Amino acid sequence: MTSRGSKSSSDGVLSRISNSSLAKKGKAAASDASYVTKRLLKSTGKAAWIVATTFIVLGLPLIIEMEREAQFNELELQQNSLLGAPPVPPAFPGPPK
């Protein structure tokens, strides 16, 4: 009989704690934090998608074209050196040495 009485009193304590204003405020704060986190992740995902597709459409072709131009310049320098022509300085010189 004592164990039954202590069980009902502990149920009462748990229900009082879970129904307290502090517990309700904590649940509301957790719910708000969850909502904000979901929205933040969703908007971050959208921003990442925009950045990635913009890079693929604009940045990747630019990088490919710059690499192609560098290869063309290198080939031209090799041909000039084989033909004995004086070397042509690069169009975009690097930093001074």
TrEMBL record:
Topology class, membrane: Single-pass membrane protein
Cited InterPro entries: Tom22, Tom22_pln
Stretches the record annotates as Disordered: 1-34
GO cellular component: a single term: mitochondrial outer membrane
CDD domains: TOM22
Primary residence: mitochondrion
Cell location: Mitochondrion outer membrane
Biological process annotations from GO: intracellular protein transport
Alphabetically ordered keywords of this record: Membrane, Mitochondrion, Mitochondrion outer membrane, Protein transport, Receptor, Translocation, Transmembrane, Transmembrane helix, Transport
Bias (Low complexity): 18-34
Positions with biased composition (Polar residues): 1-12
Signal peptide: none
Transmembrane segments: 47-64
Record family assignment: Belongs to the Tom22 family.
The protein's name in its UniProt record: Mitochondrial import receptor subunit TOM9-2-like
Organism of provenance: Dorcoceras hygrometricum
Lineage: Eukaryota, Viridiplantae, Streptophyta, Embryophyta, Tracheophyta
